[in-house]
Write a structure and sequence with these properties.
There is one protein chain. With about 160 residues, this protein is α+β, with helices and mostly antiparallel strands. The protein has one domain: Gcn5-related N-acetyltransferase (GNAT) (Aminopeptidase). Helices cover about 30% and strands about 30% of the residues. The protein is globular and about 35 Å long. The two termini are about 20 Å apart.
């Protein structure tokens, strides 16, 4: 497995991983019309516009995971001084192989001493378990948008 920084050349892979993971993971958790209208090109273009903090995992030359990290959390996050993981996706066939952990570790490089915030889709029990195992806890904050409920989690500084 290889973890690489997002570039213009691999942004299409980034978009495809996210698009495929949404299809594998979110059916039954979010409205079908959202899933049926997803486009890999949309995610790829957004990644090209803001490549900082984004990485891809490749296994045997194939993109199998993606992560995106903001050095400063968005305004609506509970912990204003935290960093924020805005996406972490791994294709199902590569779950429990260390891909998610490797992507998270790469994204968290240089964030020592900082809290880390993320939002996870309510009902995405695999992701919730993964984040809890990595030291994240629920804050109690929920975001409801377009038929989706996201739950805020935080890993306090010093937890590894």
């Amino acid at each position: 497995m290889e973890i690489v920084r997002l570039t213009n050349e691999n942004a299409d892979d980034f978009g495809q991983v996210i698009c495929d993971c949404w299809g594998e993971t979110y059916r039954g958790l979010i409205p079908d019309e959202i899933l049926d209208n997803r486009k890999a090109e949309r995610w790829a273009e957004r990644a090209r516009l803001s490549p900082e903090g984004k990485y891809l995992a490749y296994a045997d030359g194939r993109a199998v995971g993606a992560v995106g990290m903001l050095k400063s959390a968005r305004d609506f996050c509970t912990y204003a001084d935290s960093c924020e993981i805005v996406c972490l996706y791994v294709l199902k066939e590569f779950h429990r192989r260390g891909v998610g952990r490797a992507l998270m570790e790469k994204a968290l490089e240089g964030t020592q001493g900082r809290d880390i915030t993320l939002f996870v889709l309510k009902g995405n029990d695999n992701a919730i378990g993964f984040y809890e195992h990595a030291g994240f806890e629920f804050t109690g904050k929920e975001l409801d948008e377009g038929g989706m409920t996201e739950l805020e989690m935080v890993r306090k500084a010093g937890v590894s």
